[in-house]
Design brief:
The protein has about 170 residues and is mainly alpha-helical. It folds into 2 domains: about 120 residues, no CATH class; about 35 residues, no CATH class. The chain is built from 5 helices and 2 strands. The chain has a two-stranded antiparallel ribbon with strand order 1-2. Helix 1 packs across helix 3, helix 1 runs antiparallel to helix 4 and helix 3 runs antiparallel to helix 4. The relative contact order is 0.14.
Length: about 170
Amino acid sequence: MSPKKPVRSLVDFAIDNIADLVRDEALRVAYVVRNKLTYEEVPGTPGYDPDLEEKLAADREIYYTDQVELFKQHFLSHIPHLLVEEVLRSVLVGIAQAILALKKEWTPATNMKFFTRKIYAVTKFSNVLVIPYRKTLNLDKIPKVGKQIQGLSLRVCFLKVLTYRPV
């Protein structure tokens, strides 16, 4: 008889898919930036317009900021506070996957100006990891407190990370 596999919870399935969601959204923003908000004319050529290049640079920065902030607000509005730590790990995995996907596209002939803009767009998604109301204190990294906690009763021994959320 084959061994029984434990059934994964729906929360585990959802958290695993968050990395894919973040990767896809980061890549989508990177390609929009590359295809619609990048000025391709070279300075010194007849079609070069410095004003248009400057306008596109400003629009690109606004697009980065707005898209990441909208994604963050929508995303965090659906996450229960108790799962924030697990979800943020998955977000980081999604950002790493998006960067790896872009790195696979790189060749020595790749235009570094455009490639750098796409990588920058993906790394802007690290702002999703910044949650101002979340304060974490890892007690293992504070030597005196860690030793004091080890000496306490069993009721407190499980405490490793203290997360503070103001009410």
